[in-house]
Write a structure and sequence with these properties.
It is globular, with a radius of gyration of 27 Å. It has helices at about 80-90, 110-120, 135-145, 160-170, 195-215, 285-290, 335-350, 375-385, 430-440, 455-470; strands at about 5-10, 15, 35-40, 95-100, 125-130, 155, 175-180, 215-220, 240-245, 255-260, 270-275, 280, 300-305, 310-320, 330, 355-365, 390-395, 410, 410-415, 415, 425, 445. The protein contains 10 helices and 22 strands. It is α/β, with parallel strands linked by helices. The structure holds thymidine-5'-diphosphate and magnesium ion.
Length: about 475
């Protein structure tokens, strides 16, 4: 059989060259050549159809109406981790390809090991392929996890793609973890493991075998610090489901959310906490964040949405005189550009200019909030910090929606800011309000209670300003 050869294909124009070059000879773009395997025309059993076969040799197929397509009842494989099953849409679909992306050290190996442990305990055939750690290292992790079922997981420590494919064919697990897609490599390509060509080849070949043998595969992929699914981004169109594992390594809270799911909604998110015996699902995150909220100047509670679930988190801001031009904007847990927009609106329409101040903003607990509903919380936290007025809702007669009153609970809010200073409605207002009420936050500023940022600011600060004045008198 002829040896497969590789070519370098330009991802911009499709030009092919036998050797790599920095600049594509076809379109003169830089860094677009990606190595690909060019299989010789005939390929053994189970391989792709031979290329270049004339249309005359292929028999035409008859299209059928979608209503006549026979669907089989999907029996999902439950991982036993409620939050993960939820995000997947009810468990792993047999034969599906799931990409789990996350920064190094976030807990991808821990989560997938825990999932396999539960599946093994439920009598499923599994396989853990580690291309990063030795079997002994995986065992050490498994020993930390509670239950002991993790020690029953069959593992191989292997970096060679062809060996892994052969093992899949002989073992035929129902669920397999590949940890990680960037460290496996095919010997047919000369490029380094983790390069775009290798990652694409590895995922493509694994998918081919997995779909043929109906093996569900959890592909682990590393993500750069900037949040891009670096290599694996090229895989997003290929896989059935993309899960993103987020959080800060130094903090304990982590969230898993689906950013693509062919078998379920992408609205779900799961919250976990890293303990010394593995990841633990966090079911009462709101309660914890609210009880920890400082109620000091610069702090406000945001009624955020984690997927389709409301979550109360504390947003903190610090404003201090700056000696730098331009002044510093340090943001954790929020989108920097969104914060810049909010600060601009705050200056223009809220009368709080921060041109000569450093602004630090943090979502407490390492939670990441990626939704416009956080705008008002940022604005109120920064305004509160700048004016040094604590936003507590004493008694309950403040401008928000009040439904009774525990004395001195933190002020809560949500809402998007428009560029003209108006507050815009965001999704799931009812669920956010219900969550706030559940945890005793009776004063909530939101787009239905206040139409503009200015109105919300005077409701939040005006009252405080009066009480400060009273305290001074
Ligand atoms: P790991 O799952 O190896 O992360 P990833 O595969 O995403 O790179 O582990 C993440 C971190 O969690 C690691 O620094 C060790 C820590 N850890 C715990 O705190 N408790 C535990 O029970 C385990 C297994 C790991
Ligand atoms: Mg790992």
């Amino acid at each position: 059989m002829a040896r497969p050869t590789t070519v370098h294909v330009c991802s911009a124009c499709g030009h092919e060259t036998p050797r790599w070059a920095g600049q594509c000879p076809g379109c003169s773009e830089w860094n677009t050549l990606v190595e690909e395997v060019r299989q010789p025309a005939s390929r053994g059993s189970g391989g792709r159809l031979s290329r270049g076969s004339a249309a005359s040799r292929a028999g035409a197929v008859r299209p059928i109406a979608l209503g006549d397509v026979v669907t089989e009842e999907q029996q999902r494989l439950r991982t036993g981790i409620g939050e993960l099953d939820n995000v997947l849409g009810g468990g792993i679909v047999p034969g599906s390809l799931v990409l789990i992306g996350g920064a190094p050290g976030i807990g991808k190996s821990t989560l997938t090991t825990m999932a396999l442990a539960n599946l093994v305990a439920a009598g499923r055939r599994t396989l853990y392929v580690s291309a990063e750690e030795s079997a002994a290292q995986i065992r050490m992790r498994a020993e930390r996890l509670s239950g002991g079922a993790a020690l029953q997981i069959p593992v191989i420590a292997e970096t060679d793609l062809q060996t892994v494919l052969a093992t899949l064919e002989s073992e035929r697990p129902e669920v397999c973890v590949i940890d990680s897609v960037q460290t496996l490599s095919s010997t047919e390509l000369t490029s380094a493991p983790g390069s775009v060509g290798q990652v694409r080849e590895v995922a493509g070949e694994i998918m081919r075998v997995a779909k043929a043998l109906r093996i569900a595969v959890l592909l682990v992929g590393h993500v750069t610090k900037e949040g891009a699914l670096a290599g694996p981004r090229v895989l997003e169109h290929l896989v059935d489901c993309v899960l993103q594992f987020e959080g800060e390594r130094e903090r304990t809270y982590r969230t898993v959310r689906a950013i693509k799911n062919r078998f379920g909604s992408t609205n779900e998110a799961g919250v976990f906490e890293m303990h010394d015996h593995g990841l633990v699902e966090v079911l009462d995150a709101s309660a914890r964040f609210v009880s920890e909220a400082t109620r000091a100047a610069g702090s406000v509670v945001l009624c955020a949405m984690e997927g389709s679930r409301p979550l109360l988190v504390e947003v903190q801001a610090l404003v201090s005189a700056s000696e730098l031009v331009p002044p510093r904007r340090v943001v954790a847990g929020l989108d920097r550009n969104r914060v810049a927009l909010v600060l601009a609106v705050l200056g223009r329409h809220g009368g709080i200019g921060l041109g000569a101040a450093d602004v630090f903003i943090n979502v407490v607990g390492g939670v990441r909030v990626d939704e416009p509903g956080a705008d008002l919380a940022v604005a109120l936290a920064v305004a509160s910090a700048a004016r040094r007025i604590a936003l507590v809702a004493a008694g309950g007669a403040a401008g928000g929606v009040t439904t009774g009153g525990t004395p001195d609970h933190p002020l809560a809010c949500f809402g998007e800011l428009g560029l003209t200073g108006e507050l815009r409605t965001v999704a799931h207002a009812d669920r956010r309000l219900a969550e706030a009420e559940k945890f005793g936050l009776t004063t909530v500023l939101h787009p239905d209670s206040h139409r503009t940022l200015r109105a919300a600011l005077s409701a939040a600060l005006g009252r405080g300003e009066r009480s400060v004045a009273r305290a001074a008198a």
